[in-house]
Automatic annotation (TrEMBL):
Keywords: Membrane, Transmembrane, Transmembrane helix. This is Leader peptidase PppA. One of its GO terms (cellular component) is plasma membrane. InterPro entries: Prepilin_pept_A24_N, Prepilin_peptidase/N-MTase. The lineage of its organism: Bacteria, Pseudomonadati, Planctomycetota, Planctomycetia, Pirellulales. It comes from Novipirellula galeiformis.
Amino acid sequence: MGRRRRSIPWAFVLAIAIALVCIAYVFGVAWWQSRGSSHYSAADLYLTRMIDVTIAAWLFWIGASIGSFLNVVAWRMPRHESVNGRSYCPRCRSRLKARDNFPVFGWLALRGRCRTCRLPISPRYPIVEAVVGISVTLVGIAEIYQLSLPYQSTHFHGGALWTPVVDQAVLGTLLYHTIAIALAWAMGLIRMDGHRLPRRLTWTAAILMVGGMVAFPSVMAVPWQMQVAPDWRAGGLYFDALMRVVTALVAATFLARCLARGLCVGADLKLDPLGKSTARLVDLITVIAVPALVIGWQSLSAVLVVGSLVALGLGRVLPSRTDMLGRFAIAMPITLSLAILFWRPLHALPLWPSVGSSPWVLLAAAGVALIAPVWLRESTTASPQTMPIRAADADDEDADDDDDDDDDEDEEKDADAEDEEDDEDGNEDVAEEGEIAGDEGDDPHEPTKPTVLEN
């Protein structure tokens, strides 16, 4: 009888690998910087580089913890459950221990299985935690070290004594952008599963994003005008903050209506305000409004074009059941993180639409956004009109579904009555037509179960 093969402790291996990378960074960068300086030795720079590692580790821990919470939000909110309380296994209902909730490492330590019932836990949990943690870490480092935001005072980068800048304005802006990234990820995960955006999430996003900018104008980063002075600063400009919100929401609504030609075919807020395609359009506006409030209306069209291309690339990674709107929604937090990370160099490019750009550049970017529905169009096999109604959509639209069910029952009764009359007449041709009509009266698209994600 052979020995039982021991599994690899991946959590321990990952921890050792991260520790080795951090040690290599501290000693390697300190040694490299000391070579070109006659005033500092490598030992003098160890502490400075350890600060870098500490900040990066802290940012990743915060981001991964946010990702862990977003997994709960994406699972519970569409099912009208409270996001409070301890996490539990949906199969055996046992509560998870604190160490099992440790981002990324908890799943690896459990080897992807529940500690109690030993049933598998979806790998989506550590993936979301890691991706959100990486996005928050990159944005945080870029802003704390003053690498990304335009109109921000800068100092020499890359020197031996290069240290982070931590003050009220920097931390406030970073907090605002972290909230925006978290909200964008939450919306993307929910839409990726095919659910409507919950009202609680939409109102939370509106209060935090709109209220935060109006109350603290310093988080604007860029103005709402097309031309401003080179030494423009955002602090204390409450009217400008209000105009920034208005212009961002108007731009988000306009561009969402443009993209709706491919993502929400048949949507009409006036003629069909309660339709399913219109509900998808409302979700699309909400998804686009988050990056619009962060980066401003000037660059929004270019960011959406990049996001549409990212959505195409995600088609090879995401499950095949994910529709194009879900891909686009999950592409938004990725694109938003990249836009913040490279904000300053993009702002300086003459062909990137931003404050101070030529009107022709803005019009060209908007024109490309107008043709984006060509490659963002839903597939004909799963168009918004013929797509099966998911359980979450049915819960949000009970009244519409009841009316549709009544209409379907009436059609089936009429079809059955016609079949009986045709059978009595004994006309085989007419009977065949009646059977065909009866078959067409049935709904060929059976409702599918919502995407089940173990929590």
